[in-house]
Amino acid sequence: MAKRERPLSPFMHYRWQYTNTLSILHRLTGIFLAFGLIALVYWLVALAGGPEQYADAAAVLSSPLGTLALVAWSLSFFFHFLNGIRHLFWDAGHGFELKVARQSGWAAFIGAIVLTAIFWTVLAVQMGGAA
Amino acid sequence: MSLQSPLSKVLGRGSAKNGVGHWWAQRVTASALILLTGWFVIELLTLPGLDYGSVAAWVHAPLSAVLLSLLVGTLVYHSQLGVQVVVEDYVASKGVKVLTMLVVNFVHVLLGALGVFAVLRVAFGAAV
């Protein structure tokens, strides 16, 4: 009896493409954002603690490392936000055509970078104005 | 002949003992978060500043306090649902999975309680 070709698990033979990348990025940014919740709650608790605690937290968050984390969290947030809208459209049965899926994928990716840039520019202007 | 009880046949749930509740809750919280996070980002950008006085006065206002509490609660719920899916997908051992989920759930409830309490404390505190 000839040896039969056994089916392979998808991950053994799927070509790596942009869809995989966006899909795994949605999970990675989601997990990363879960850690961002700690920062958000830390900020709120410091606010409730009064001006001194708030100043301490603001110093931590505006330190070089804190700023880097906040930029990474904002970029992750905007991507997860835009890509999440793609997922909701898919759940409703729309946007599965290859061309549309590719375009919306790029839109989520580039849109996240653009929104992050706008967010920090406006924030910098606001902080500059307040100082 | 089916070994399924009439009840389990009607409920139509497999070995997961669960319906679409988890899946649906993730989509409902996602939809709510489009609105809540959108509001939050715009508010952050239109505040007079991010100094203590500006932020405390903002959180003290009733509408901000309610929407911030809803934001924290919905974020925590959505995050817990998402992390749970990832843990279920990648943690193979049953024991480690259960322990991980216990920690994940405890941390999420703690973050939610701390966040909402902090917002309410500022909201019900003296005006800044």
Report on the architecture of this protein:
The complex is a heterodimer of chains A (131) and B (128). Chain A has helices at residues 10-13, 18-49, 51-62, 64-91, 98-130. Chain A is 83% helix and 0% strand. Chain A has one domain (19-130): 3 helical TM bundles of succinate and fumarate reductases, CATH 1.20.1300. With 128 residues, chain B is mainly α. Chain B has a single domain, classed as Up-down Bundle (3 helical TM bundles of succinate and fumarate reductases), CATH 1.20.1300. Chain B is 79% helix and 0% strand. Chain B contains five helices and no strands. The interface between A and B is medium-sized, with 31 and 37 residues.
Instruction: Please outline the major beta sheet of chain B.
Output: none
Fraction in beta strands of chain A: under 5%
Order of helices and strands of chain A: HHHHH
If helices are DSSP runs of H or I spanning 4 or more residues, what is the number of helices of chain A?
Answer: 5
CATH overall fold name of chain A: 3 helical TM bundles of succinate and fumarate reductases
Class from secondary-structure proportions of chain A: mainly alpha
- Determine Rg of chain A (CA atoms, Å): 21 Å
CATH superfamily of chain B: Fumarate reductase/succinate dehydrogenase, transmembrane subunit
Q: Looking at CATH, which topology of chain B would you report? A: 3 helical TM bundles of succinate and fumarate reductases
Our count of domains of chain A comes out at: 1
Domain module count of chain B: 1
CATH class of chain B: Mainly Alpha
Essential attributes:
heterodimer, A: 131 residues, mainly alpha, 3 helical TM bundles of succinate and fumarate reductases, 5 helices, elongated, B: 128 residues, 79% helix
